[in-house]
Automatic annotation (TrEMBL):
Organism phylogeny: Bacteria, Thermotogati, Deinococcota, Deinococci, Thermales
Protein name per UniProt: Diaminopimelate decarboxylase
Subunit structure and binding partners: Homodimer.
Residue numbers annotated as active site: 324
Sequence ranges assigned to domain Orn/DAP/Arg decarboxylase 2 N-terminal in this UniProt record: 36-264
Amino acid sequence: MDATPSPSAPLRPEFQQALQEALQRYETPFYAYDLTRIHSRVKALRQSFPRARLLYAMKANPRLGILRRLRGWGVGLEAVSLGEVLRAYRAGYTPEEVLLNGPVKTPAMLEELRGAGLPILGVDSMADLERIARLLPGAKVILRVNPDLPIATHDHLATGRGESKFGILAAEVPASVRRAKQAGLEFLGLHLHLGSALESLEDFQEGYRVLEALYESIGPTQVLNLGGGFGLNFDPAQVSEAAQKLADTFGAQLWLEPGRYLVAEAGVLLTRVWGTKRTRRNYLLVDAGMMTLLRPMLYGAQHPVIPLYEGPEVRAWDLAGPVCESGDVLARNVPLPTPKEGDALAILQAGAYGSSMSSNYLDHPRPLEILWNGAEWEVLRRPQSLEALLAEEA
Ligand SMILES: *Cc1c(COP(=O)(O)O)cnc(C)c1O
């Protein structure tokens, strides 16, 4: 693994100072978020796409305290499970403000939605289409296109490749749209989500071309959903004109589903060093690990790390978590001063797919999550208790 990248944009000084205060009050590991930073990302996206409807992909970070803020700013939600839809409603969202995607929608799930309030549904396969038509006649649907493109990102994140499990191949889309209408569904339009952490302009351009070619057979639609996937080193403004133009071709409202882009850089994971060790590498032994932040292990994701202490002699360290798996290393080759026991580190760009992918592996409770609102720390989620961990067991 290469050295971890330096932060594309460092923390705001006010937030970094608030982190020092949080470290006095709370035990590590914990997640901390900067609300101002989330808001500025929403505003930046609005500026680039003034006519688009934004649907935040809540799997990036589903804390209710964040969802309520987003709703206040007029951002809708994109969900991919029943639980997420119910969570969206708990945050105050109404069904028409929520889009449910995802490759598998069971009959039980669809029945439950009938009672709870029916969101807009993203159709991902013919099986999905037929089941929705049978159980939820008249439902509003969009249809996900598999553009069958090479997509430059980690294999696990490339949803727009022909080999991926997502969407309906473009050649089959016209017949699927006819079938949706004939089966009594309200067809709103097409959906394209190419993958996550994308940084190549060409991937977006080629994806848009696939949709453009479908216009001739599909005709005008109400909606054109171009998904999310904006990587942290990609400025979505680069595609704003092409995206809007494509939506205009369809006479459709443009929808976007940003996840990572809105929250990744607003979040940090705070951890403390409880020792150093030398094997064939230099390790810092820290209290956060794969159970707190899975991305390094799952995708080889590289998160910048900054020291919140001063010390002598900067050299390269690997951050070893507490889990008994040799892959439980949060970062490699991080240049850091020599720490004392208990010194703190901030793992950056951890606001997206950090806490939402955390687990209880080895009976580690879920960590505390706090939000800096500009004046004080708000607790978004208390640390999980041992009682909560054991609650479902006989
Ligand atoms: C995960 C997901 C997103 C958000 O992806 P990001 O890379 O976080 O922007 C958007 N749309 C769909 C369908 C998704 O599954």
